[in-house]
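Replying to the earlier thread about multi-chain prediction with a worked example.

Input:
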Amino acid sequence: MLHNLSIGELADRLSAKQISSVELTRHFLARIERLNPGLNAVITITAEQALESATAADRRLALGERGRLLGIPLIHKDIFCTDGVRTSCGSRMLDNFIAPYDATIVARLKSAGAVMLGKANMDEFAMGSSNETSYYGPVKNPWDTTKVPGGSSGGSAAALAARLAPICTGTDTGGSIRQPAALTGVTGIKPTYGRVSRYGMIAFASSLDQAGVLTLSAADAAAVLQVMAGFDPNDSTSVDAPVPDYPALLDAPLKGLKIGLLREFFDGLESRNAALIQDALKVFTSLGADTVEVSLPHLPMSVPTYYVVAPAECSSNLSRFDGVRFGHRCAQPQDLKDLYERSRGEGFGAEVKRRIMTGTYVLSAGYYDAYYLKAQKVRRLINDDFRAAFQKADLVVGPTTPTPAFAIGAKVDDPVTMYLNDIYTIGANLAGLPGLSTPCGFVDGLPMGLQLIGPHFSEARLLGAAHQFQRATAWHTHTPGGYE
Amino acid sequence: MADWEMVIGLEIHAQLATKSKIFSGSATAYGAAPNTQANLVDLAYPGVLPVLNAEAVRMAVKFGLAIGATIARRSIFARKNYFYPDLPKGYQISQYEQPVVGKGSLAIMLDDGAVKTIGVTRAHLEEDAGKSLHEGLANASGIDLNRAGTPLLEIVSEPDMRSAKEAVAYMKKIHTLVRYLEICDGNMQEGSFRCDANVSVRPRGASRFGTRAEIKNLNSFRFVEKAIQYEAARQVELIESGGKVVQETRLYDSDRNETRSMRSKEEANDYRYFPDPDLLPLEVDENFIGAVRATLPELPDEKAARFARDFGLSAYDAGVLCASRELGGYFEAVAQGLGRPHAKLAANWVMGELSSALNRDNVEIAASRVSPAALSGLLARIVDETISGKIAKDVFEAMWSEGMAADAVIEARGLKQITDSGAIEGMIDAVIAANPKQLADYRAGKDKLFGFFVGQVMKATGGKANPAQLNELLKIKLAGG
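Result:
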């Protein structure tokens, strides 16, 4: 079936005229129409524009143009501004917000000929690990619709796992690509901080946010990242360094590659989960890689550090949502204070408010040193830990999450338990490192993810290792029942 | 006030004369229709990011070099968080703990001619906010974000000033400097140059500072002087009547000439400063600094010293002439045209007739109706005694209003000075003959009548008699020679 093909195969069929982009687009739109109501993964469907874009792609194909993404459908996480299309960020605050411009990555993918089918559900302002904080309601995991898909890119992950599109963009501030990718059995990569432009991506925590992509394979991710990555003069934190040819580097031999096993990631890890990681290591060994044990002594502090830094930045980033220029405005404000209080009080959900309050607190006079500055110091220590680990290993591996997908509603009332779900993923964000999650098996019928973290700008190495692992295991080809 | 001493520090906000805003590509021109110079970045739309304008950095560094300040190789932009409708992001981007310009200083001249050095603590880059508009709107406020994101250099002084006059002299000096450097147009009506004054008082001789009040947003030299005077007097009166000054922000009401409390320290915002994660630390290297240094013009103090040395001017005159780069340039052109020995004459005319004509008709010196060459042409006729200084003033007026050259005016109006001794003697004889009583009185010892005779002869010659010759000849004639 078309929806199980890789991007490379789809591109081949498009260029061989075996199928048109319009047909491909119709195929996925039909799947969205049929399957999305049970998942709530897609919150805006742009069928008309999609067919126009597909027609344009077909014209380019007819003229002999070739491109890895030309005519290939995708779904954007609703955190990316899309010109003329509602960009809600999963919030009531932006329920009425039609973005007047394209995010840089949206523009890059558009000019590469990718066809946007719609926008994916997400945790409100990307704050959440279960996609339950969305104003548009929770997203269901296609493997078990009583379970969460993870978050915050939960809509993207669920849509991809259900084969509603071959590409879903995502963003990752503390694991928001890798964790949902793991919980839905797909591949997700968070590139190095600065590798992909943040311009037009609605900010949660600016020093941690990074755009990336979820796909059915590492090879597909390589093709998409190739287009997304690169310097953007509109983003001062994007890095002006050449982008390697990721697809061309996928088969770089793993012989002699030193893979570090992260000791701390196994503390208290459930045995079945740990066994999957050990199995994965054996696969790498069989591919010629060597394993070493590495340690990140400060890793246990990553969650508290993150929950100081991220709320601090978010409390400031979300100040612009004040009911004055765009977004939700309360009815009949009595005065300025009333306008602010009710617009924000009504527009933001509970988790967003919790983080704004936490962030405001840690930045306040008298607390700044004890919280924000302390967290920045620990952040440097974690960075140093990784640096030391990469002296011994070319990349490090461990589980992406402590457990498989949990039940919808199970953790909503306990934010701290929810936050601990990100324990393995947050470190890479604090250190700005690239991380990738690939399917590595099942526990209780639910997919689990293997996480690979590499030094800055080692995306090609991560993608290559994941690609060869996937070729050797085929975990990534498993499709949830009912979505084959 | 006799037993009290004022302590004043100023925070001057100079709007940098960049073409575009500090973090976006919007134009900074003044006076456009509301919100026509505000793009998505200025409006703080979701997802947008700031990009630092390198020109603003160049200008800040230029200022730092001009006051001999240390230039930070690495400085940080922070966010100052507060809610206000004219602040679209809900925070202002401003350099907080690590500004680009560190400690420097500059000298001011006091009324008695003494020179005092005022320390500059720091100067940092930040963005301006927009404005709220209330006029003509019923039950609503308008927001104009044209000014949002305009680059500002905030120049913070040490609390080194001890009188309102010193504060004004310092502010004027900075005003002169930023215009010399061409980094700010200095337009105070449009708000391009304004300041906040920190004022406290203490018993004369005390070593500790008193509690200060900050007077916000003073946009004229006169207001700075009056607001400080009022505020210091208020504080003294308060303390002398047993009260205590509280640390607070006050606003100066120029209509009523008083300051009023805006908010006290307790009510002050907690701005929750933290480094802006959207902007990398600003790094400037030696090459950058060297390139900026190469663009520095001759600075006001250097120019004044040169004028004093080369043209023999007093320090005061040289200082006045160097108050603006244009004025200094004008003077120098006139003085060079006339020759160095007559530079004092040129200085007097530039500071006198020319400046009053410019002020009277509200004309910028660059648009002066009498060019430096024309003025030196006029002054040359004084030097060569073609006309007297008094007649020259009339000629100047004609040049100013009719745009003619000095010689043409002198020729057309027949203003050439009479230097023919015979002619002058003839007129003296006629005057003496017509005033026998005065002559008798003079000869009887009423010396003051000499002036009467000078006036009569001048009148008879239409003011054209050469004054020195006239004096000499008149003395001889009156003595009976």
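The CA atoms of residues 362 and 482 of chain A lie 47 Å apart.

Feel free to reuse this layout for your own posts.
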